[in-house]
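Hi everyone,

Forwarding the result from last night's run.
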Amino acid sequence: MSDPHTSPSPSPYASRTPVHEQELDGFGTVRVLRLDAEADAAVIHRWVSEERAAFWGMNGLTRERVAGIYAHMDTLDTHHAFLVVKDGEPVALLQTYEPEADRVSECYDAEPGDIGVHLLLAPAGTEGARPGWTAALAGSLMAYVLLGLDRKRIVVDPDVDNEKAIARFLRQGFTAGPAVVLPEVDLPDVYLPEKKAQLAFLRREVAFPG
């Protein structure tokens, strides 16, 4: 009989229904959960406040402001946010959007079946960086976006100076597109400064041939 004082506590995410769940041999179980703006605010705020996440554009914001941004996003039909959990631990923030409803559509010719993606990985844990870890996680997320959502092509728009993110996408099979300038967005609920971005694309038949 296990000692109740030493038994691990159940994950606070275990009761939430995932939109995608995948068990990967040698890696673990990846679950994609709809982001709960209030319940997940502390975790997301901690990630976006780190210097390494400066390109995410939320450095310096309060927890309440971050929660408010994602609460607003939850009211939209075109933009969605998800908390990615591996074996009960949060490991990434995934955002998807319809390109035609986003400023990126002003910078490239969108095709039917396109979907936009933003991905923020959690900081490395106590074990540090592990070879193949990011690729395995990203592969599961690409399966959700391209197969689960039945999309034909992913578009990403990392900052041109975010060399690590660009290299990560290219290793994942993305093809580099043009470098563009995303225009400023100044709306009552959303403000986004002008952004110099490197577009990259991943077609479903490339990610999942056959």
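The radius of gyration is 17 Å.

Cheers,
N.
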